[in-house]
Description:
Blueprint: E1 4-8, H1 32-43, E2 47-52, H2 57-68, E3 80-85, H3 107-112, E4 122-126, E5 129-130, H4 133-144, E6 151-158, E7 169-177, E8 180-192, E9 198-200, E10 205-207, E11 212-220, H5 225-240, H6 250-259, E12 264-269, E13 275-276, H7 283-295
Parallel strand pairs: 1-2, 1-4, 2-3, 6-12
Antiparallel strand pairs: 4-11, 5-13, 6-11, 7-8, 7-11, 8-9, 9-10
Amino acid sequence: xxxxxxxxxxxxxxxxxxxxxxDGIGPNNEILMEYSIYDALRAGFNKIVFIIKPxxxxxxxxxxxDYLANRMAKDGSPxxxxxxxxxxxxxxxxxxxxxxxxKPFGTVHALLCAKDAVSEPFCVINADxxxxxxxxxxxxxxxxxxxxxxxxxxxxxxxxxxxxxxxTVSRGICQVRNGKLVSVREAxxxxxxxxxxxxxxxxxxxxxxxxxxxxxxWGFAPSVFPALNDYFEKFLREEAGENPKAxxxxxxxxxxxxxxxxxxxxxxxxxxxxxxxxxxxxxxIVAEELRxxxxxxxxxxxxxx
Length: 305
């Protein structure tokens, strides 16, 4: 059975101050998405789809794509590797892109760019996040049993483990009941304070450290693409306007689908710890975490072994 890992790697990393998706941070200069790929392959995934900027293609081939193209999946089949581009060419002709806009339209737009490359159950992730070995094993099992359209899944993480002391972060705040996602809303400015308290600055509301959040670790059937397309077109018609920074976000789209009764999302929990790089100051912490994982034997000395 074909199951894909779709990696959203086209972001500019503006808050980080550079292209964090290709920042070598592991002990042997590994980038974070190499850990995601390594964990996904040992869980059983047998196809990798990179969503990138066109100018990143040569770099991605050099860093990991060419190596992966010669790999075998866990089931013994050749690993399939695809590249798709997130740029303005995929924006519907009816929408006039503001002259001052320099970046694409967010995670819904990113995933839509992969629609012609994905025809099987898939997991979609951020390139600059570390999700953990157990998380991939958990979502792989769920995807392998995903019954039909209208069904989806996600891995949830605790808010206290996903915020940064170095600035605000955006998080999908989830309400979960009996293992199902009831609602998700995007909190665009979540601040962690040194005493461990958290606050949604936009709503001026405190947040519980144990709040379940989405880290864009979603699992879908390919039947989700028409809904993504409809939602993106509606966003362009009704919300984007001339705002050069408007973003069409996956958690918000999922929340709308839940509200309309068009989607059922199971919420999975992982024993793995999430970490990622939003700000450049996060880099040292992530590098140390990866070093410890290698030393503990969670990863071999080289991920290409």
